[in-house]
């Protein structure tokens, strides 16, 4: 059976001039929106079910953690493989208020 996360990684690594299309068998993900911290306002799609937390690696700035909340909000993004905008319910992830070393900010 096709691993959806491995297929998703493959989709994201295409030349800039190519509009990526999901491989056969890849399921649509769930919408998320980040609140607070260095990724405030960012939206995205997560393949599979909602995780308890999301660790965002910002390279030299370290790994920042966002925790799942009980809140949902409309998230606008693009349908994979097209330029069609869509709006759907997405879960809010709140920054944990700590730097990558775990110190409270």
Question: What key phrases describe this protein's structure?
Answer:
105 residues; single chain; 9% helix; mainly beta; five-stranded mixed β-sheet; elongated; 1 helix
Q: Can you walk me through this structure?
A:
It is a single chain. This protein has one domain. It is mainly β and 105 residues long. Strands 2-1-5-4-3 form a five-stranded mixed sheet, with no helix packed on it. A hairpin with a 7-residue loop joins strand 1 (30-35) and strand 2. The chain has one helix spanning 4-12; strands at 30-35, 43-46, 53-57, 63-78, 85-95. The radius of gyration is 15 Å and the shape is elongated. The protein contains one helix and five strands; from the N terminus they run H-E-E-E-E-E. The longest helix is centred in the first third of the chain and has 9 residues, at 4-12.
Describe the strand arrangement of the main beta sheet, using strand numbers.
Answer: 2-1-5-4-3
Number of separate domains? 1
Give the helix level as a range of percent. under 10%
Rg over CA atoms, rounded to whole Å, is 15 Å
Catalogue the unreliable spans: 7-15
Overall pLDDT, averaged? 78
């Amino acid at each position: 059976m096709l691993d959806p996360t491995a297929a998703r990684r493959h989709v994201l690594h295409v030349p800039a001039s190519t509009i990526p299309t999901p491989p056969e068998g890849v399921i649509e993900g769930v919408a998320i929106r980040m609140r607070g911290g260095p990724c405030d306002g960012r939206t995205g799609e997560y393949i599979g079910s909602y995780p308890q937390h999301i660790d965002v690696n910002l390279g030299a700035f370290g790994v920042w953690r966002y925790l799942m909340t009980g809140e949902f909000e409309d998230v606008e993004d693009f349908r994979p493989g097209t330029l069609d905008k869509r709006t759907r319910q997405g879960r809010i992830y709140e920054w944990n208020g700590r730097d990558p070393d775990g110190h409270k900010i």
